[in-house]
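To illustrate the input format used throughout this study, we show a single complete record. The first block contains the structure-token representation of the backbone; no residue identities are included at this stage. The design step must infer an amino acid for every position from geometry alone.
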């Protein structure tokens, strides 16, 4: 089976730089509390009880983590830094905000924060739709074109609307943001012909490897911020399908723009056909499974990455159902030793990332495994592994050594903590999962 080339690891240099920044920058930051006062969130954390005291401690820390990383800016928007890196990622911040959707319907304070978070992302995507991360003063931190960075804010806004019924987020600026997202996606359908985007980390003078036209959307980088090998990244294509459906519904039901709604839906259907035509690969042991990356020229990489969107997370972000046969086939492959990014140790086993050391597991992937599991024992098993990954600070980190969780990357990383809070609330506390979109009308390939 096809597998990707071994990664070029830059994580040690990056980790050292970020560690240095986390020491130096606070010296020049005005003294203030980074934690927002969100009484409902604080009360929910304080009131959480479990017969497992370790779970109590980790859930409370996880639920409060976003409020410790978020702050209101002078322009009334809200900024969420990713953790120990002084920047906000569109993807990470969208995910970090999600657990607070559970409290938004009843609490105007939480709704105000979520509106401010979305408002800031709207500004980002009008400044530069090719950037994936920004600073507090709206400077581009990285201009790595990641398709999921266009999809996440759209899906967050849709989820907020469906949860609260509040349409006040859908301003003229929001409409302009949707236009920017749609135009960028359409342009990148035919990257070699229509796009001027380049990046120094990509081959072929920054334009990436050759790619055939598929109807899918070209992307330069994975959600891990690593360069794609082949530039049709199937998990991101799946998430784009979800977000384009969200966009179509917002345009139709909120902005009453039938033309734009149809345009978004048409692109969604083109991407979906591309996924089903080029993204499925026959593997004798498993049947048809989804590839991780393809080039539209017959090449594919069979693996996954812990960062979301991932193949494992497809039901979580609403692309498919856990009992879809292609997903089930893919899942069996991903959680096996045949997947080159699946690692097993004495403490944990799960999917890692080509962004961090070989054989290190990511809590993000474990949480997603639990949230897409169909049996109680598997959910409990995943919960046990996540609790065992705690190095002593009761927080989840970027990645860890599955033989010794005291070895880990990223001292502060908000995303897995937010996802852990969501995992516990939906899988063990009876909260219904907040959807990111509705793809029930999609056609899937049948053999």
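Output of the design step:
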């Amino acid at each position: 089976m096809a597998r990707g080339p071994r990664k070029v690891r830059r994580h040690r240099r990056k980790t050292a730089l970020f560690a240095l920044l986390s020491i130096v920058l606070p010296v020049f930051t005005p003294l203030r509390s980074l934690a927002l006062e969100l009484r409902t969130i604080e009360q929910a954390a304080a009131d959480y009880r479990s017969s497992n005291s370790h779970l109590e401690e980790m859930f409370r820390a996880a639920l409060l983590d976003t409020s410790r990383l978020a702050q209101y800016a002078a322009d009334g928007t809200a900024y969420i830094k990713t953790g120990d890196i002084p920047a906000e990622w569109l993807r990470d911040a969208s995910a970090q905000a999600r657990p607070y959707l559970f409290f938004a319907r009843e609490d105007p304070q939480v709704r105000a924060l979520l509106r401010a978070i979305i408002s800031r992302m709207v500004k980002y995507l009008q400044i530069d739709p090719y950037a994936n991360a920004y600073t507090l003063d709206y400077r581009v931190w990285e201009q790595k074109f990641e398709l999921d960075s266009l999809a996440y804010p759209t899906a967050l806004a849709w989820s907020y609307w469906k949860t609260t019924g509040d349409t006040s987020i859908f301003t003229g600026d929001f409409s302009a943001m949707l236009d920017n997202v749609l135009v960028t996606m359409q342009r990148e359908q035919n990257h070699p012909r229509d796009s001027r985007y380049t990046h120094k980390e990509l081959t072929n003078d920054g334009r990436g490897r050759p790619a055939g036209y598929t109807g899918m959307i070209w992307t330069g980088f994975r959600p891990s911020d690593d360069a794609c090998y082949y530039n049709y990244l199937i998990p991101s294509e799946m998430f784009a399908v979800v977000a384009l459906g969200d966009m179509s519904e917002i345009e139709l039901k909120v902005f009453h723009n039938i033309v734009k709604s149809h345009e978004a839906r048409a692109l969604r259907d083109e991407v979906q056909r591309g996924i089903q035509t080029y993204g499925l690969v026959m593997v004798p042991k498993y049947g048809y499974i989804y590839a991780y990356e393809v080039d539209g020229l017959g090449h594919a990489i069979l693996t996954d990455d812990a960062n979301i969107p991932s193949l494992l997370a497809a039901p979580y972000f609403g692309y498919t159902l856990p009992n879809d046969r292609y997903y089930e086939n893919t899942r069996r492959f991903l959680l096996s030793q045949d997947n080159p990014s699946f690692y097993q140790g004495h403490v944990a086993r799960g999917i890692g990332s080509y962004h961090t050391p070989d054989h290190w597991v990511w809590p993000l992937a474990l949480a997603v495994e639990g949230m897409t599991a169909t049996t109680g024992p598997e959910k409990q098993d995943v919960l046990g592994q996540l609790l065992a990954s705690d190095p002593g600070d009761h927080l989840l980190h970027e990645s860890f050594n599955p033989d010794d969780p005291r070895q880990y990357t990223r001292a502060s990383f908000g995303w897995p903590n937010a996802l852990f809070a969501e995992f516990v609330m939906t899988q063990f506390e009876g909260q219904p999962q907040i959807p990111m979109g509705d793809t029930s009308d999609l056609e899937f390939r049948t053999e």
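Structural context for interpreting the output: The first strand starts at residue 70 and ends at 72. Confidence is low (pLDDT under 50) at residues 1-34.
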